[in-house]
Structure formats: structure tokens, C-alpha cells
Amino acid sequence: LSGGAKHSIFNVCYALVEEGDEVIIPAPYWLTYPEIVKTLGGVPVIVNTTEREGYKITPEALKKAITPKTKMFIFNSPCNPTGVVYSEAEVRALAAVCEAADIYVLSDEIYEKLVYDNARPFSMAAVSERMKERTITVNGVSKTYAMTGWRIGYACANNKIAKVMSNYVSHSTGSPSAISQKAAMTALSGPQE
Predict the structure, then answer these.
(1) Would you call 118 exposed, middle or buried from its count of C-beta atoms within 10 A (0-12, 13-18, 19+)?
(2) Tell me: the pLDDT tens digits for 77-122?
(3) Hey, what long-range contacts does 61-70 have (CB within 8 A, 24 or more apart)?
(4) How confident is the model at residue 152 (pLDDT cuts 50, 70, 90)?
(5) Across all residues in the chain, what is the average pLDDT?
(6) What is the C-alpha to C-alpha distance for residues 70 and 44, in angstroms, rounded to an integer?
């Protein structure tokens, strides 16, 4: 639990990224991603996508961007700002590259419920047990439930990473307000129509 999905993304990066680590970010991207990486002395590796590719990073482009210094791949589907939703097959193909390179994936899924034309987002963590261990999924209630000012975000990670994130949070901030937490629980556990 954190003060918004942005705060969760900071927590993930602070738990994993060290000076000199490379973090792959497909472009177009949310402007905060590379800035967070840079605050840690990490190196954002921007991989440009094109209209011809549907503004999606391909497994080949991802593989080409990976070096021995690559620590993490930031994956955002549905994507901000393009709205692009990767299919299950596309996610599985990207996951295979990440598994082979043994890198972490920060999967920003804050827009998972805001899709059109019967698009169905597929989580990187759902690919396999190994990907579940290497993926940190970030979400929150601001977009789906129109609760932007309530500042509730969360991340799902393996126990080791979650512990590091928890330690970081305990020294960097207080928790979101109690009323925000109660409202978020109501939103998440209530009807989803």
C-alpha cells in the first residue's frame, strides 16, 4: 500500500535499481519513468516504437536493448499515453525475453480496467511462476474508481522484494489516510460493473 501508484513505482525502483543499472522503457512512455530511474543513478534505456509496430515494443527490440547492466524492463499495458493494449501472445513473447535475460519487470497496470473494443489486458505476472517471481505489478484506485485525490496505490511482488519495499516506505513516508484506505477497499471489493 502506498500514496498512489506513482509512489509504488518509486518504491519498486528504490528497491531494485542501483547506480549504473539500466532500465528499459518503451517510448512513448509516461514521463515519470525515466526521471525515477535517474534519481537513483540508473540509466533509462529508451526503446522507440513506431506506428507501424502499433507503438508496441517487439521481442526483438527488447532483446537488442538488453545488456549485462540491464536490471529491469518497465512494461505498461494498457499504455499511457498511447492506450495500446498488448495481447496475451505479445506479453508471453516479451516475457520469454525477460526470462532468458533474467531481468525484473515493473508492470504498471493502473489502466487495466480502462480499455475499449473488447481489449483484454494480460498481466506479465500471469505468464509463469518464474515471471511471477520476477514481476512487480503496480496498480491503484485512482483511474478505475475516479479516486485520484485519495492517493492509494499498491504493488504485488515476491516476499523478498516486498520486504525491501516495505523497509523503504517505513523510512520515507507515512501511510495513506485511514478514510482513503477504507474507500479503496470498498471500491476494490464492491461491484465492478
Answers:
(1) exposed
(2) 999 999 999 999 999 999 999 999 999 999 999 999 888 888 899 9
(3) 62/24, 62/94, 62/97, 62/98, 63/97, 63/101, 65/24, 66/24, 66/97, 66/101, 66/103, 67/22, 69/20, 69/21, 69/22, 69/43, 70/21, 70/22, 70/23, 70/24, 70/45, 70/101, 70/103
(4) confident
(5) 92
(6) 10
